[in-house]
Design brief:
single chain; mainly alpha; 0% strand
Length: 99
């Protein structure tokens, strides 16, 4: 949960506060503003899932369906975050990072 909230609450604020005025920074900020609502939805969905299933004695009849839906939302989030990373100009996979 900490990772999910970190992107939502800190990374995007940092982009707003510290990005320069270059065309690249302006593009990254524009993408971040465009993606932020969709990423915020995934944060809310993950927190709701966590809160729902963290309760003792919670019915698990819909667990698999809820996990599937959350997985799809997280996949979308990862895709958006990868697009932001690409816009910044950093590699998105560990093989590239290790080279």
């Amino acid at each position: 949960m900490d990772y999910i909230a970190l992107g939502h609450f800190e990374v995007y604020q940092c982009l707003e506060d510290h990005a320069g005025e270059s065309k690249k920074c302006q593009r990254v900020r524009r993408l971040a503003k465009e993606f932020y609502p969709m990423i915020a939805e995934t944060t809310e969905a993950a927190i709701a899932f966590n809160d729902h299933y963290a309760s003792p004695g919670q019915e698990t009849d819909t667990l698999y369906a809820d996990l599937s839906q959350l997985g799809e939302q997280l996949a979308t989030r990862i895709e958006l975050e990868d697009r932001l990373i690409n816009a910044v100009g950093y590699p998105t996979n560990t093989e590239t990072l290790l080279q």
